[in-house]
Structures are given as C-alpha cells and as structure tokens.
Specification:
two-stranded antiparallel ribbon; about 65% helix; about 5% strand
C-alpha cells in the first residue's frame, strides 16, 4: 500500500511564479493549500517545489514564512535543510541557523557546513568559524577557500597563508584569494612570488597583481603586468587607471582611459575622483559633463571636489541637480558631503532642509551622518541642537565618531571645559580615544585658553602608543602655546621635531606672534614659512601687521612693497549672514552692496564704541588694508 504524504502550508504575499497550472500560485489566489503526494515521485517533486518556494521566500526576506513552510514538511531531504540554513545565513541570522544546524534530526553535508563557516566569517566571528571548520567531517575545496578568505578578511594574513599551504588541493580561486590577501596587507613581494608559482592564471589573478602593485606604489611594475595580460576586461583597465591616479600620474591615467575599448561607470568615476584628489577640478568637471550616465558616486565625487576647493555653493547646486533625477538616491557619502557644504556656508536653512530629507531615510541611523549633522548645527551656531542630537542617540548607538563630533562642536565654540567633561565621560564608558579625538580636545583647550590642560592631554597623547601623533596635533599644541604667549617654548618645540615642520605648524606660531606683537620670533617664523612657500601672501601680510603693531612703520612698508613687487595680493576677507532666507555677502573693500553707506556709518559707530570700551587700539582697523 502506498504511503500517503500530506503537506499543509500557508504562503503570504508570494508573487505568481509561473503560468503553468501545476505550479502553486501566490497568496492573492490561495490563502491555504494542502497538497496530497501519493508516490515517491510526487514526494520528490513536492520537495523540489517546496525547496523552490523556501529559497524564493528567503531571497525576499520573508524568512519566518520560509521557516513555517519548512516546519510543516512531514519529511525533509538534504536540499531542504541546505536551503533553510543557507537562508538564515544569508539574512545574517546566524543564531537561528545554528539552532537548526545543531538539531538532532538535522541532515548535513559539506555545503551546509561551509555555509555555516561562511556565516560566522561575514559577522566577523572568526573564532567560531575556525572551530566549525576543524569540526567538519569532510571538507571540499570550497570549504578551504572559504576559511582562507575568512582569515584574510579579518586581517589574519599569516593564518590565511599557513592554511593555504596546507590545502590538499587548490584551484585558481585559492591562489587568487591568497595573493589578494597578501597584496592588500602590503606583502606585495610574497604576493608576487605566489603569483609566479601559479600554473594557471585567469583575468582575476592578473588584475589582482596590477591593483596590488599599484596600491603599494609600484605602478611601473603594475603596468608591466597589465601589458603582459593575455586577456583584459574592464575591471583590469580600471585597476590600472586607479593605480596611475593614486600615484598622481594623471596624464597616463587619462591616456589609458581614452584607449579603453569599453568603459563602465567605475571607469568614469575613477578618473573623476583621481582628478579631484589631485586638485584638478577643471578636468574633473569636463569628464563629469561628458559622462553618458551618472550614478550617485559620480555626483558625490563632484560635490566633494567643490567642497574641497571652497566652492560649497556649487556643491549645494549640484546636490539639487542630482535630486531632480528621481532615480538617483543620496547615500551616506552624499549626505555627509552636502552637510559639510552647509557647515562651510553656515547655511542653517539648507542644513535643516537636508536634515528633513535624511529623517525619511535609513541614513538617519548612520553615525557618520549624525556626526555630520552635529557638526553642521554647531557651525551654524545651534550648539544646543547639536547636543540634543547627540543626547537623543542611545548609548548603544553612539560610537567614537559621534563622541568626536560633539567634542569638536564644543571646541569650535570655545567651550573647553565642556569638551573635557565629555572626553572624560567617553573614557568612563570604555571608548578609546583616537587621533581625531585628541585634535578636537586640544583645539578646545586652545580656544578656551586652557593651556595647562592642553599640555597635559598632549603629554597623554605622546605616551599613548596606540595613537599616532600627527601634524594636526602639533599645530594644535603650537596654537595653544601661541595664544598663551609662550612663543619661545612653541618655537623650541617646532625646532625639536624630528621631521621638518609643515606650513600649518609654522603658521599657527606666526598667528601667535601676530597676536602678541613679537616681531623677533615672528620674523624668524615668517622666513621659515617663506622657505616652504615663497609666494604666501598671508605671511607677508601678517609680518607687516606685526611691524605696524609695534610702530615699525618703515619695516611694515618694506614688507608691503615686497608684496607689490612680487605681485602678491592677500585674498580679501569675506563674511556673510542669512537674513529672511537671503544670504548677504560682504567682502573687504567692496562697496557694491545696496546698503553700503548705511552699513559704513554703523561700523564707524561700532568702532567708536569699541574704542571707548578699550576693546581695540585706534589703528587696529588700518593694519590689514590692501595697498
């Protein structure tokens, strides 16, 4: 007597899958369905169809419905177990996958074991992946490749190499995985040796070496490999172009770009990004305008270029152009960049409008976006909103980026003690400071005149071997000493640096000399700066102001004359305020504003009141006039 099998399950919101009458239709037509299977053939067919439905539901994210269908099966073959466990893994639900995997009635094969190992690797649980890998009763080449790749992705390159060497057999994926890992961590010579040992290479092998050599500064060797490639695809061309762009060889990158037999979106984006990163905004604009199609990366790259070149208004314009295309949606990078433009312009209205857009997207949970919002509100003078945004995020959602953003906001407004209190609280909660944290903290101490505290934190920074002391930290330290009038101490610190100090470090000291009228040290510092950048108009201007402050008018005039002979002119100061949704821009020496005369009288009145209050010397406004 043939055994009768019953299968009962409910499918919700599954689309119509096929027009064939024997295939099960979706939920709109059938709410509940009972299938009677009356033979082994029917059972196999039913399992096959059920497997298809479970796979489809998992892909659509309807994992609970897939599990319900799985549980209602009276009998399950290895295919069903594989599909259900793999579905959990792909949805990132490793705990549920493990519970099913550990059931006594579970049917397991090498595919399921490998899927579990892969699931733990994707969640960076490398130790559990490793444990499962060594418990496997049987491993195939995919299992070995998965574990090698897992070690590589978690930065354990030597473990990956050791496991690769122990593999009983290897395929081209095995070789490609290990050379990628070695090239990525800077072991390019080891990668080259293994590449040379390969009996069989594919286009991925060659492209990996081209990208690895370029990334490690050996762009000529990368080009040699590129020229030797038996077959190239668009990814290979992009890798070589990226190599040239990363190594500031833009003409060669462009020459190769123009020779490409076909280009894809990354080809264009690579060239545009390369020009922007190397300061050539004009050529980036031309390529951007010539693009047959643009994606969000293209638009964001151009916004970034405009912001980096101080053209934040153009960045906002291009953001609005991108939004006019309903197909393109901003991503995290887009929002961070455009909020940076709002910060630069102190454009509160624009920033609030973008905040409203963000609140309707998943990016409102991004710590990068939240940090950019905090920075924007801070730069626009709304520190209380910035702090509210920081406080509204739960402790679980806050990461180091959020803490750094709020510390920087306090630093920007000169609230040194508040920044220190926040720093202390951050440490109490177990967050480890990084280089950005210390830049914000030192800046806060500098702007608030907290010299001793600043020196103490700089000393902590130097002793903390986990954080590398950068140029920005020294610039903050020099600014701190300069504001406090400890100019000789600051000069000695710079002279004691192992490497030659940069323009920003000397510039911080020159500003301090200007504030305190120390011409002797100021002259030495100015000479140091002019050796680095001989055509720096700002340096000449500051030196002239220092001479004028101490009454050395002849020396001040001589410096101004040098500027005139060299054809140097200081960039005029510019400021703006927003009144009634209209931005009013003011430039030094410009009288084109419709209310210029009235504003002039107001400034004179304000100047008079400030002199009476003793807030400025009589000749202060005359020091920075242009000749």
């Amino acid at each position: 007597m043939k055994k009768v099998y019953h299968l009962s399950f409910a499918l919700r919101h599954v689309r119509k899958l096929n027009s064939h009458p024997s295939i099960i239709y979706g939920y709109p037509l059938l709410r509940s369905l009972r299938v009677r299977l009356t033979s082994r053939f029917s059972l196999r067919l039913g399992m096959k169809r059920c497997n298809f439905f479970i796979s489809r539901l998992c892909k659509e994210g309807k994992i609970d419905e897939a599990r319900k269908l799985f549980d209602e099966m009276a009998e399950r073959d290895i295919g069903l177990w594989t599909t259900m466990i793999s579905g959990y893994v792909k949805c990132g639900m490793i705990k549920e996958a493990r519970k099913l995997f550990d059931r006594l009635d579970a049917k397991k094969n090498v595919v399921i074991w490998t899927a579990m190992v892969s699931g733990y690797i994707k969640l960076n649980q490398i130790e559990e992946a490793e444990r499962l890998f060594y418990e496997m009763p049987l491993r195939n080449i995919v299992s070995w490749n998965t574990m090698v790749d897992g070690y590589a992705r978690n930065g354990q390159t030597q473990h990956a190499l050791d496991l690769f060497r122990r593999m009983p057999e290897r395929n081209v994926v095995s070789w490609n995985t290990i050379i990628t890992a070695l090239a990525h961590c800077g072991r390019i010579d080891d990668a080259q040796r293994i590449f040379n040992q390969m009996q069989e290479r594919d286009v991925v092998s060659w492209t990996t070496m081209v990208a690895g050599l370029s990334k490690n500064g050996r762009v000529d060797d990368a080009r040699e490999h590129f020229d030797r490639m038996p077959v190239r695809n668009v990814v290979s061309w992009n890798a070589m172009i990226t190599g040239y762009a990363q190594n500031r060889r833009l003409d060669e990158a462009l020459e190769l770009f123009e020779r490409m037999p076909e280009r894809d979106m990354p080809s264009w984006n690579t060239m545009i990004t390369g020009f922007i990163q190397n300061g050539d905004l004009n050529r980036a604009e031309k390529l951007f305008d010539a693009m047959p199609q643009k994606n969000v990366i293209s638009w964001t790259a151009m916004m970034t270029g405009y912001v980096q070149h101080g053209l934040s208004e153009e960045a906002l314009k291009i953001f609005n152009k991108m939004r006019a295309n309903d197909v393109l949606k901003p991503n995290t990078g887009t929002f961070v960049t455009v909020l940076g433009a709002c910060s630069d312009l102190a454009g509160l209205t624009e920033g609030q409008q973008i905040h409203q857009l963000i609140s309707k997207t998943i990016f409102q949970e991004s710590t990068y976006v939240v940090s950019a919002l905090i920075n924007m509100y801070s730069k626009c003078g709304e520190l209380h909103i910035a702090r509210k945004m920081f406080d509204d995020g739960s402790l679980r959602q806050r990461d180091l980026i959020s803490w750094n953003g709020m510390i920087a906001a306090y630093a920007h407004h000169g609230y040194g003690k508040e920044a220190i209190n926040l720093f202390n609280k951050m440490q109490e909660l177990g967050f480890l400071a990084n280089d950005v944290t210390f830049v914000g903290l030192l800046t806060a101490c500098s702007h608030a005149g907290l010299v001793e505290e600043g020196l103490k934190y700089f000393d902590e920074l130097v002793k903390d071997k986990s954080v590398q002391v950068r140029e920005d930290h020294y610039a903050c330290l020099i600014d701190l000493c300069g504001r406090a009038g400890r100019l000789e101490e600051a000069f000695d610190i710079i002279e004691g640096l192992e490497e030659e100090a940069s323009l920003s470090v000397w510039g911080a000291l020159l500003a301090g000399c200007n504030v305190h009228g120390n011409v002797d040290i100021g002259k030495l510092v100015a000479n140091k700066i002019l050796k680095i950048e001989s055509e720096n108009a700002g340096t000449y201007s500051l030196l002239s102001n220092m001479y004028a402050l101490v009454g050395k008018w002849k020396e001040a005039a001589d410096v101004r004359m040098k500027m005139k002979v060299k054809g140097l002119k200081k960039q005029p100061g510019c400021s703006w305020i927003e009144v009634g949704n209209t931005v009013q821009v003011f430039v030094v020496g410009d009288k084109s504003h419709s209310l210029s005369d009235l504003l002039g009288y107001l400034l004179i009145d304000l100047h008079t009141k400030m002199k009476k209050a003793g807030d400025m010397p009589d000749d202060y406004l005359l020091l920075d006039e242009e000749f």
